[in-house]
Amino acid sequence: MHLRAAVIQTASVPFDSAATTKKVVKLILEAAAQGARLQVFPEALLSAYPKGADFGARVGGRLPRGRDEFLRYYDSAIDVPGPETEQIAEAAREAGSYVVIGVIERDGGTLYCTVLFFSPEGELLGKHRKLMPTAMERLVWGYGDGSTLPVFDTPFGKLGSVICWENYMPLLRMAMYGKGIQLYCMPTADDKDSWLATARHIALEGRCFVLTACQYLTRADFPEDYDAIQGNAPDTVLMRGGSAIVSPLGEVLAGPDYEGECILTADLDLDDIARGKFDFDVVGHYARPDIFQLVVDESPTPPVVLKR
After folding, report:
1. Domain 2-279 annotated CATH 2.30.40.10
2. pLDDT digits over 111-140, tens only?
3. Active-site residue, from 113, 130, 166, 208
4. What pLDDT was estimated at residue 232?
């Protein structure tokens, strides 16, 4: 069986969820016109990855402007489900495609870096919340828990997602391999040269297809009053992309692209997954459960439990 997949390298309309959603819908239909039945969008695309912002934070104190910056970010986040997810679901249905997309999810007073999964039937299948925000991300994003680590059965294989530097958590990768992931989606904000090596390693380790999508983002994409440490020249590149698709034996099938916004596609021979397992199956014949075992707690961990 073959599957045409796409990674969509694009930019948010930062802090404008309606405009970003409109852009996403257009790109879903464009990728579908190229035959893509699986589409992967970058981390935090809807509505922003605030690259270079510090939110006025200092050790032991916060500047008032930082609270206003957070307010803008909070107001531009989305509810799941909500109007934005309904529009993306409808676009996925019209495109006949699975869509995997990074969003900033608002839940109560907290924001989460979340990946959403949509089916070709226009259904919101579920979500994964980033377990460990990286460095300054912890200032504005909460932590996910084990209850949102889904891997979905599709006609093309088992579909799941691990976000950005979560991919440097070996136990999380192992948990996903244990769930049988075959279409491993890696929305990211990491545009370094080393990221492709990470994607290739995971493809080889998991004997799965890896689809990594990153934004191509410039200072001009942000409002004029955005305070980025990189400076205010409009053509300053804040995130340079590097999206790619990699086979289960580590072959780069598409990308990486560092030139601008684009749709990268590749035709995946899904039999390559079994071909790769021939000599390496990290949760099968290459495992040593007599020595090493991983225990995963998938129960929700709410801070308040009401008992009646």
Report:
1. no
2. 999 999 999 999 999 999 999 999 999 999
3. 130
4. 85
